[in-house]
């Protein structure tokens, strides 16, 4: 969806070509981006938390702090949900009860850190995708799970009345799900690192060494695209909320996320 809007705001009638690079939970895309030449013609839309985890666990040799960060298109706090039969209604319940936590490989690190922040015992049950986790919850095979709030809330709404939202990993309630309380208001004093890993953030970067003038042109085009009403509306129809941020904010969050994942000593 972004490509035509980048073309709209980039000078000289630039044509944007999308290349989907899959594999190893985003590692292939990150490695390819890091090895690309800093000519301004190769940029990557990647998951900040995935990049942070790979860096913290030694899967990414190059320091992504050195990349040319250009902007952010979205940052969706995680939402924790549970089955109605689990007896889980709050972080306090998670701390005092044994429960089965349905996770995918992408969510496992953040789920482990979240349980540590709450003081709960982490007992993960692994699945390949979010749909499998939700189906397992409906069957009663797991008690709770966590995904970005749009994915999680869709699962709750499709859960035949058997699933309920517990909280979002944020300090303020989300306008899109105002009835769901936050981790903070439920009495959990989590550090900045927990919030840094407690989201799914879509950020854009170019390889290190990008020319300063080219960098500013790309930052401006991405910023304008992110605030284009038509782009925002298209993203909304696709169940994505546009949340922009600048390079300095991205670097700060990346640093906090890397440090939090490193402290947790999580492996997959």
CATH topology of the largest domain: D-Maltodextrin-Binding Protein, domain 2
**Portion in beta strands:** 15-25%
CATH class of the largest domain: Alpha Beta
Radius of gyration, CA atoms, in whole angstroms: 19 Å
Distance between the amino and carboxyl termini: 32 Å
Describe the model.
- It is built from eleven helices and seven strands.
- The chain is of the alpha/beta class and 268 residues long.
- It folds into two domains: 3-75 and 199-264, 3-Layer(aba) Sandwich (D-Maltodextrin-Binding Protein, domain 2), CATH 3.40.190; 76-195, D-Maltodextrin-Binding Protein, domain 2 (3-Layer(aba) Sandwich).
- Strands 1, 2, 3, 4, 5, 6 and 7 form a seven-stranded mixed β-sheet that branches.
- Helix 1 crosses helix 9 and helix 3 crosses helix 11 (247-264).
- The two termini are 32 Å apart.
In short:
By secondary structure, the chain is α/β, with parallel strands linked by helices. The protein has helices at 3-9, 27-35, 48-56, 91-96, 108-118, 130-139, 149-157, 192-197, 212-226, 229-237, 247-264, and strands at residues 44-47, 68-83, 101-103, 124-126, 144-148, 163-168, 199-206.
